[in-house]
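re: ur msg from earlier - yeah i can do the pyridoxal-5'-phosphate complex, just paste it... oh wait u already did. ok heres what im feeding in:
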Amino acid sequence: MLEQYMLERLEALKGQGMLRAITPKAQNASEIEAGGERLINLSSNDYLGLGHDKALAAEFAETLRGGGVLFSSSGSPLLTGAHPSAAAAAQACEALFPEKKCLFFNSGFAANSGVISALGLIPGTVILADKLIHASVIDGMTSDKRIRALRFAHNDMESFESVLCRAEQDSEQVIAVTEAVFSMDGDRAPLKELAALKRRHPKLRLYVDEAHSFGVYGEGGRGLCASEGVLEDADFILCTCGKALGSEGAFLLCSDTARSYFINTVRSLIFSTAISPVAFLHIAFMLKRLPNEEVRRRRLSSICARVHEAVAQAGFPALSQSQIIPCLTGTNEKALKAAEFFKARGLYAMPIRHPTVPKGKARLRISLNAALSDDEVSRLCKALLELKDQNQEA
Ligand SMILES: Cc1ncc(COP(=O)(O)O)c(C=O)c1O
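and the outut:
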């Protein structure tokens, strides 16, 4: 029965053109090998090209030459997982963010789902999340029937304040959750406005997911909370290490008390084997480099400016304020067609379809990185203009 159900579901997905599969793909930041072809990589989260920099990888490997580095933490952070390398990563992290304490997790997903769940279970708490918030936050909000969670319209401060006013009437604290750069639309949360609302709403706390902004924005790559001057107002900041930092894992920035509380309550931390010592060393190595990567940040910023201009010229709605650029096609079929169209021009960008995004908002999702050459960017801009024509004809 079980296998039969699975087979039928898979057949149905295939019929809808929605069947997903994991296929091995060799890649570096600017190129990817998919289906035997080498294509320009417009789907990577390695926004600065740090993760695929071979010289940097060799430099890190050199630091391991003395030997004695372990590849398994062999236990959760509360057991054997807190290896000295974890302390090295924490030290590098707190050198970058002296305003906060940090707590590492295996991934951004584990951090968001676990921390939001732990926060939501604090008596008198309401979680108030943006409509387009990442699945990891949704999993946290829905992890326990006792959690009270509400949503507000995407980036809409009027909607936010009206839900907030309702929520604060019968709660002790309202934790607003947003993304500094949204993973699908590439737009930014109004961080300053949210922070300003804390003055009028003392029960309001802020949780900002910087998965797509940490490393890319702000002085030293400290992210948008830092560059918008709201680092102090943001009570909880989630940074992932597997995207712009070019490593793996994630960390939460918060107060010392909150850190201790999460160590004692977050199930995805307590009941999971910690990041390996070698990975902690790599995170520390990359965190120390990050402030010096201004050239890569500027390069990415100038690529973004060129591509945003091409997107506008091609007549796509200008949703993006970042290196993540959605080209709305409307239907799932058109998104698939657009990806094929790009592939025929040597460009690899993923179609994002409903139900991942709302119905009618399927898109080709482009994510830019600093390793793209001028020629590769020109090919992308040309393809965007041609794509608009084909989208209109279809
Ligand atoms: C906004 C956002 N938050 C969290 C995550 C999860 O981070 P990780 O990939 O480290 O699990 C993602 C992943 O893409 C994301 O887009």
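cool cool. The domain at 13-50+294-393 is CATH 3.90.1150.10 (Aspartate Aminotransferase, domain 1). ping me if u need the other ligands too
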